[in-house]
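Thread: quick sanity check before group meeting

JM: Hey all, I'm pulling together slides for Thursday and realized we never actually wrote out the predicted structure for the chain we discussed last week. Dropping the sequence here so it's in one place. If anyone has concerns about the input, flag it before I start.
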Amino acid sequence: MTYINGSSLPPLGRFQWLKSFLMWAFALTVFMIVVGFPLLILVVTVASLLAMVLQSVLPMSAVLVVSGVVLGAHLLAVVVASAVLTFRGVHPHEVSWLNWLNASAKSVGQSVYASCPLTCEVDNS
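JM (edit): ok, ran it. Output follows.
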């Protein structure tokens, strides 16, 4: 048995790991809310059926137990996925589809407002 002095993580600053983990947690939370919203109907349906079944066994706290398990599972999934991505060395600024997180995101084009055809040619004289 050998003892290796040091950590098994690639060298990064102490706060870089925390920053990367927190950015992944934020990005995955937003992803779960926006993209996972259609799946919310399925999750609510299964959770409500489970609460009705569990109501006969735990009449006082069936809804609390089921909602706690559903929220806890989502939270655990976000934390585990963030930790796995962080420890594998995948950083949010390296991912192309997360350019909205970077401050250096390039604008696609100039905004055209709905009132522009009516007011853009009006002189201010």
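AS: nice. Confidence is low (pLDDT under 50) at residues 1-7. The two ends are 86 Å apart (CA to CA).
JM: adding both to the slides.
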